[in-house]
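Bit of a strange request maybe. I'm writing a small parser for structure token strings and I need a real example to test against, not something I typed by hand. Could someone generate the tokens for this chain?
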Amino acid sequence: MSAAGPFDAVVAGGRTPGVYRVSSAEPAAALASRLVEVGWVAPIIDGYAVADRDAFLRACAAALRLPDWFGFNWDALHDCLIDLSWLDGAGQLVLWEGAATLLDAEPVSWRTACEVFTSAASVRWALALSPLFLAVRGVDDAALPVL
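Reply from user aminoacidic:
Good idea to test on real output. This should exercise your parser:
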């Protein structure tokens, strides 16, 4: 297994950027470390305490080191995810641990978060920017493909 481990296909360009479920039971910090070893940025969102939209946006701001101008709304998150110029890497794979907390508490916010990441990943891909992935753990949403 290469340095990227379960994310080999992502790193090799064999997966379309977007939102996926993570099937690996390996700790998030170890997964992130594997990605960093191959030149990717791999912030971790600790979602276990994220039970509403505002908490999710705050968690994103912290994990992704969003700029001071981030407006703490879905449109602002989308804009920041398209930019990400402050994160230097061959690609960005955001690991969202405990994603079921938001899904259970606010299903609409869960769906919106996934849609925002999916849209931003598509825009980045169309602009030939480094790929963006959101890898969620702790959910059993069959609509999301598994990495």
